[in-house]
Amino acid sequence: MPFSKDFLWGGATAANQCEGGYNQGGRGLANVDLVPHGKDRFPIITGEMKHLEFDEEHFYPAKEAIDMYHHWKDDLALFAEMGFKTYRMSIAWTRIFPKGDEQEPNEEGLQFYEDIFKECKRLGIEPLVTITHFDCPVHLIKEYGGWRNRKMVGFYEKLARTIFTRFKGLVRYWLTFNEINMLLHAPFMGAGLVFEEGENKEQAKYLAAHHELLASALATKIAHEIDPENKIGCMLAAGEYYPFDCNPENVLEAQKQNHDNLFFIDVQSRGKYPNYLLKRLEREDVQLPIETGDLEILAENTVDFISFSYYSSRVAKIKDKDADKSAGNIFESVTNPYLKASEWGWQIDPLGLRITMNSIYDRYQKPLFVVENGLGALDKPDENGFVADDYRIDYMAAHIKEMKKAVELDGVELLGYTSWGCIDLVSAGTGEMSKRYGFIYVDRDDFGKGTLKRTSKKSFDWYKKVIASNGEDLTNE
After folding, report:
1. Is residue 29 part of a domain?
2. Catalytic residue at 372?
3. N or C: which terminal CB in the chain sees fewer CB atoms within 10 Å?
4. Collapsed DSSP state (helix, strand, coil) of residue 354
């Protein structure tokens, strides 16, 4: 049997995509609240369009999302019914520190999460908590410029110390930043960056990158000091770049693209900036804001495990810049002619998960955790609200098969697997509800209409069987 008896099966969500209650319980405003559905979403998440207030012209899906703020107990009961061993969720920074720079935390926010974690424990579910999943208090963006400002390190440090102290004994598994490499592709979402006219964008991004890496290392240090039982992971938006063909130029291009994707994890797992990055930044005249003691902090506080999201592989090609492109988790890629694609154009590559796992494990030799994997699809409920999502079952079964091979045949150490969007939630990329990932259907449309009623899909019972058999029974019957 490839998976150990304590393998952590479960599902994953993010506060900004499911919680709602944006102005309840003393919560402050976050960048993710202000990202609308529609054509302006992408210019805003990339920091190209300044948008730090609500207006009447846009619909803001994160304001209410699926209202898990009021439904969490029922939702956890559904997760327990599926047999979840773990539940990956995130803390909304602005529930704990509404503005981000207060001296004292918001007790109502702390109590909200404490109640959730206690209920998880009662149900036998191990919480896996992301400290920041793309959220940054708007006050910190307006007042300090987001993560380009070194003061952010201290604010994050205070957040980390507060939650590690309060939730000691309730949470053991932590992730510092969700998809930290997304900072380079969606800087407002990843680091609260809004670019000023004439600003050197690359310089701003790498200022933010260094500050987040420093904050991650300090959080790792604090977590281990407060509770030696704590396990801290980093989190990467993963997916191996394949060369388009065996032209050496394309092979080199794929290697470069993989380097750019992995440098954050090189720092978090190996404890130092890789030479390839330092050389590139030198060529581009980009300065890292390294101060005395920073490199020692990075070196001495590496993560315990490496977690990542995997939705698709990617393809690198240096020639024919007009080649067909495929979509995929903000990253654009050359289309792979050997693969089919989802309704949103994300190419489906189960074997790519095994390849990616081997690549990451070979590089770092630390336990891995697949914390996002799933299929965004248009689900059509029948007259009873039931969704027969065989396409989702097929997708997940194929990926779990390859994950098993990576463990059983290749010897990759794997702690667990949490499917993305175990309950339908707002898509981070598009802001849509119609791009559904869950085992549980939520009655809500792209413009906030619907009853919010939860209904189990066909995949709910399938995943329950997968967990009960520890991944042995993947049949769809």
Report:
1. yes
2. yes
3. C
4. helix
Please check the confidence at residue 323 and state whether its pLDDT lies above 90: no
Checking if the pLDDT of 319 tops 90, the result is no
Please, are residues 30 and 94 in contact by the beta-carbon 8 Å criterion?
A: yes
User: Is 474 among the domain residues?
Assistant: no
Q: What is the pLDDT of residues 133-144, one digit of tens each?
A: 999 999 999 999
Extract the tokens encoding 257: 């693209």
**Of 202, 198, 204, the residue nearest 147 (C-alpha):** 204
The model's pTM is 0.96
Domain count, the chain: 1
Nearest one of 75, 79, 91 to 27, comparing CA atoms: 91
Helix, strand, or coil here: 352? helix
Six-digit token string for 386: 């039931």
With 60 as the cut, is the pLDDT of residue 330 above it?
A: no
Q: How far apart are CA 312 and CA 322, in angstroms?
A: 21
Q: Which of 372, 383, 413, 477 is catalytic?
A: 372
CA angle 272, 278, 281 (to 5 degrees): 140
First to last CA, the chain: 22
Closest CA to 237 of 288, 186, 301: 186
Query: Which three-class secondary structure state does DSSP give residue 238?
Result: strand
Secondary structure of residue 15 in the 3-state scheme: helix
pLDDT of 329 over the 90 cut:
no
Q: Is residue 424 part of a domain?
A: yes
User: What pLDDT score does 437 carry?
Assistant: 97
- Render pLDDT for 377-397 as a digit per residue (tens, 0 to 9): 999 999 888 999 999 999 999
What token pair was written down for 14? 């993010």
Q: Pull the structure tokens for residue 286.
A: 């980009």
Residue 345 lies in a domain: yes
Backbone torsion region of residue 448, taken as left when φ is above 0, otherwise alpha when ψ lies between -120 and 50, otherwise beta: left
3-state secondary structure 425-474: CCCCCCCCCCCECCCEEECCCCCCCCCCCEEECHHHHHHHHHHHCCCCCC
Give the Å distances, CA to CA, from 54 to 19, 145, 196, 217, 472: 18, 19, 20, 34, 48
CATH code for the domain in which residue 124 is found: 3.20.20.80
CB-based contact 31:47 (threshold 8 Å)? no
Reference 420, options 461, 377, 387, 455; nearest CA is 377
- Three-state DSSP string of 89-157: EECCHHHHCCCCCCCCCCHHHHHHHHHHHHHHHHCCCEEEEEEECCCCEHHHHHHHCHHHCCHHHHHHH
Mean pLDDT of the chain: 96
